[in-house]
C-alpha cells in the first residue's frame, strides 16, 4: 500500500482518476476473493502486493483528490470529515459482521462475503457516481460557488461515504 500510494500521486494527475478507480474497484475484490481459494503462501503474498498497489485508487488517497478538486478551501475540511465518516461507520458494522461470519462460516467464506460486498459497493459507486472534474458542473474554486450547495453535491458526499465504507471492508477487516 505504501509503494502504491507514492506512485498514485503522479498517476492521479497523469491518467483519468475515474478509470483508475474503476479498474481497481474491479480487480481488488477479485484479488481479495482469490485469497479464499489459495493454499500457497507465495500466491498469498503476490495477491497482497497487487492489492497494495491498487488500493490507493479506491481509498482515502483517491477520494481526497476528488474532494480537493470539488471543494474550495473553506468547505474542504467539512467534506473530508463527512467522507471519512464512511470508514468509521463501516468499521463499526463490518468488524462485528466479519467476526460473526468467521465464527459461523469460517474465514474463507467471510473473505468471499466481503469480496462480494466490496464488488456491490465499489463498482456502482465508481461507475455511476464519481465525477472527477468539478468545472463541468459549474463549480468554481474561487469561492463564488460552493460545491456544498449545488445539485449533485450530495452525490459526491455519498461517493466519499460509500468509498470509505468499502475501504473499511478491505482494510479494517483483514
Quick recap:
With 174 residues, the protein is mainly alpha-helical. The chain has helices at 2-14, 17-34, 41-54, 60-70, 73-105, 107-129, 153-171.
Structure, explained:
It is a single chain. With 174 residues, the chain is mainly α. The chain has seven helices and no strands. Helix 2 (17-34) packs antiparallel against helix 6 (107-129), helix 5 packs parallel to helix 7 (153-171) and helix 6 (107-129) runs antiparallel to helix 7. The longest helix has 33 residues, at 73-105.
What tags apply to this protein structure?
mainly alpha; single chain; 174 residues
Helix/strand layout:
Layout: H1 2-14, H2 17-34, H3 41-54, H4 60-70, H5 73-105, H6 107-129, H7 153-171
How many helical elements?
7
Low-confidence stretches: 142-151
Order of helices and strands: HHHHHHH
Query: Helix proportion of residues, in percent?
Result: over 70%
Number of beta strands: 0
Structural class of the helix and strand makeup? mainly alpha
- The N- and C-terminal alpha carbons lie at a distance of 14 Å
User: Mean of residue pLDDT?
Assistant: 75
Rg, Cα atoms, Å: 17 Å
The biggest sheet, with number of strands, parallel, antiparallel or mixed sense and barrel status, is: none
How would the global form be characterised?
Answer: globular
Strand content: under 5%
